[in-house]
Amino acid sequence: MSKTIAINAGSSSLKWQLYQMPEETVLAKGIIERIGLKDSIVTVKFGEEKATQTLDIADHVQAVTILLEDLTKHGIISDFSEITGVGHRVVAGGEIFKDSVVIDDQVLAQIEELSALAPLHNPANAAGIRAFKNILPEVTSVAVFDTAFHTTMPEVAYRYPIANKYYTDYQVRKYGAHGTSHYYVSREAAKLLNKPLEEVKVITAHIGNGISITAVDGGKSVDTSMGFTPLAGPMMGTRSGDIDPAIIPYLIEHDPELKDAADVINVLNKQSGILGIAEVSSDMRDVEDGLLAGEPKCTLAFNMLVNRLQKFIGQYFAVLNGADALVFTAGIGENSTLVREAVVKGLSWFGMEINPEKNVRGAEGDISTSDSRVKVLVIPTDEELVIARDVERLK
Ligand code: AMP
Fold first, then answer.
1. Which of 200, 173, 188, 281 is nearest to 237 (CA)?
2. Quick check: CB of 292 below 6 Å from ligand 1?
């Protein structure tokens, strides 16, 4: 029996979930927000209880100290020695990390070197790793990479049609992201379809604030919509997704507020997508309220999102030459009956039909009609569980 903690460290936040392994029971979970700012918010949930406090947390080391103190304070553990493994989500593993690994000094240095590929994420992930190593130096820590699942993509899919030297000299290629989520739901899909994983072809649609669609053949990622960075693919909550790159220099030349490429990329990452079009919010719930009230910008945002999702799903039907199922997951995919209905309606030619009685709030599993040739599945993702399982496997 052991207790394993799954960590997802962002630049100013640290999300965690504590498991009893191998039972896979969630003992507690929480989030520390606004690290490095005034009034950091610490939330811990365990059993039916939820504790929140506000205090100033200077850095990740202090955040980890408070997290561990909270675990003992609330009686979730009696001693730090009960924690036998820590799993860290790391966004970019480049071409080096094809699977999760036990973190030693060399691995940590490589994660930091890979920051060029995920400048917003890898330094924060490394800070989280370092903080735990400081406080629990004897405990095995494992890095689980968002990109690892996509390292099976063939070269035709991961290469961009730009001169070879940009790949060989600068590692410019598609890496993808959300790999842990696509890995998890593709395996759950095979179970639901009652078929061996090796024989299943699925299109997994992770539709949350970030959105990525993946073609999974026999359990392996063969193509995915995120690219060199997580900015690519269908439009997302605040990210534009794919646009013509010639827009970037054009905007620098014409909009005096945009001085350089970094400014434009910032706009494409933070002020675009659903937020850019609907204006009211990046949150799909607000956009759906606007849609139902007939508000034109929300209606356009909703329709554009559906259109982009359909086009990517259609592409992956072609990549896979047919599929057994389309899987919806993440915040919007798991909860939005409207998005699921609209997306599948326009793809009926591919042999998909939703049963409206099954496509309800809280639906899980198969929501298609019995004669739908391609099944439509709703599978809640569980990236933390994959992290905890990888710690068990490797420690
Ligand atoms: P995630 O990034 O996976 O946490 O997903 C966040 C997104 O899920 C946000 O856009 C939310 O608005 C959306 N979401 C959560 N619940 C619902 C719901 N009931 N209906 C529509 N969208 C939802």
1. 281
2. no
194-378 placed in CATH 3.30.420.40? yes
Residue 352 · residue 376 · CB < 8 Å:
yes
Q: Could you tell me the distance, in angstroms and rounded to a whole number, from the CA of residue 235 to the centre of ligand 1?
A: 15
Residue 240 near ligand 1, beta carbon < 6 Å: no
Give mean pLDDT, residues 306-312: 98
For residue 209 and ligand 1, the question of a CB distance below 6 A is answered with yes
Q: What is the mean pLDDT of residues 321-328?
A: 98
Q: Please tell me the pTM assigned to this model.
A: 0.94
Do the domains 2-145 and 194-378 sit in the same CATH topology, yes or no?
yes
Find where tokens 């973190």 sit: 103
Nearest to 57 by CA among 67, 44, 45: 67
Instruction: Write down the domain spans for the chain.
Output: 2-145, 194-378
Provide the pLDDT confidence category of residue 37 given band limits of 50, 70 and 90. Answer: confident
**In angstroms, what is the span from residue 275 Cα to ligand 1's centroid?**
14
